[in-house]
Amino acid sequence: MVLALLAHFFPEGLLDWFDLGGFEQGQDESIKGLYKIHLTEKNQLPEGYDANDYESKGFYPPKSIADFSIRGRRV
Fold first, then answer.
1. 74 φ, ψ to 5°?
2. CA-CA to 13 of 20 to 30 Å: which in 7, 34, 45, 67?
């Protein structure tokens, strides 16, 4: 249910490549309604790619992204 709700806020298809790693309400008193959503990248190839031709080198360090819009919807 949580993923279905988050799908309305994230770019289309994002949750195809990431798992929900965690969720917490921010502690910054100066920003009301701050939520931190932790996503973990899935280590998988898109359909049609041969795993023998590719090798995972790991992932980049975590990033913080601030965004305020709801994708494709008026606010």
1. -80, 140
2. 34
Cβ pair 62, 39 in contact under 8 A = no
Cα separation, 1 vs 5, in Å, equals 6
Q: Which two tokens stand for residue 2?
A: 């949580």
Please classify residue 7 by burial: count the beta carbons closer than 10 Å to its beta carbon, then call 0-12 exposed, 13-18 middle and 19+ buried. Answer: middle
Which residue has 């799908």 as its token pair?
7
What is the average pLDDT across 30-53? 81
Q: Model pTM?
A: 0.62
**Side chain identity, residue 32:** K
The angle formed by the CA atoms of residues 24, 28 and 32, to the nearest 5 degrees, is 85
